[in-house]
Amino acid sequence: MNIDLTLVWAFIIVLAVFIYVVLDGFDLGIGILFRRFAVGHDRDTAMNSIAPVWDGNETWLVMGGGGLLAAFPLAYGLILSALYAPIVLMLLALVFRGVAFEFRWRDPAHRGIWDLAFSGGSLLAALSQGIVLGALLQGVAVQDRAYAGGWWDWLTPFTLLTGVSVAVAYALLGATWLVMKAEGRLQQQARRMALGLGGATLVAIAAVSLATPFLNADYFDTWLRWPGLLAVVPVPVLVALASFAFVRSLKAGQETAPFLLTLFVFLLCFVGLGISVFPDVVPGAVSIWQAATDHSSQVFMLWGTALVLPMILGYTAWSYWVFRGKVAADGYHA
What we know:
This protein has helices at residues 5-33, 41-50, 54-57, 59-71, 73-82, 84-106, 111-138, 157-181, 184-211, 217-224, 228-232, 234-251, 257-277, 288-291, 295-322, and strands at 142-143, 146-147, 280-282, 286-287. By secondary structure, the protein is mostly helical.
């Protein structure tokens, strides 16, 4: 049986990006909400809830970007050329956020400044990631296998919409994470935030979903014409059902279910994105097969990935298992 390694590599990269989004999403979300928490105990507890895992979460961003470079070098070059500015902003925000995370504890005299840097870096990183997503969806100008657009093509009303939408969704993930990890006043505040952010996220998903089919004819045919309509109808239906269950779980006082249901909605959004763009890696311009490296390189890299990927998955699972349970301001988990 012949296996299409291009499809295998596309799946690996999508998996890495999805894991990054859901894992780094909640700790970016906590950063976005951070300024709304009371100074002292609540902020310390919120930060300690992600302290053991936040830097490991970003491993998946490296794997996704490195995998794209190795397996789909043409797509990597086109995407970096078209989206250089928002990608650099995202990376700088992540770096500055990481520095603020460490210096907050080591320089208590300026903790207010580091708290602002942590929150601002988280928000900028989330907005940048959403803008990159929107820019890819709206299309990249390609001519003779090179980027043919301008410096500011990525900045449009649609990309701003996706940027804000991703930031809101990350904030929802952060709030539901704290519902699961915190106790007392902070947990109750996070529960109230999650209820409001859940509604805002649903509105954002609807807005992006309604705008996307009108970006190009292929999206329109996939989502709004028969027979493509039949294949995609389950996605919004499942989002609606998950949203209903989410609200019920919050009002019932459940702690883990809201976070898991939010992850499920993220998965459904990823499925919807996949339905929209497949088989393109640069939507509307380059397919995964056109962008793929040669077969021998794919085989060589797959051997290394088969060794490294289970190790990363194992380390990630182990770290979350070790630091399971509730967290206190002093960092000790119950």
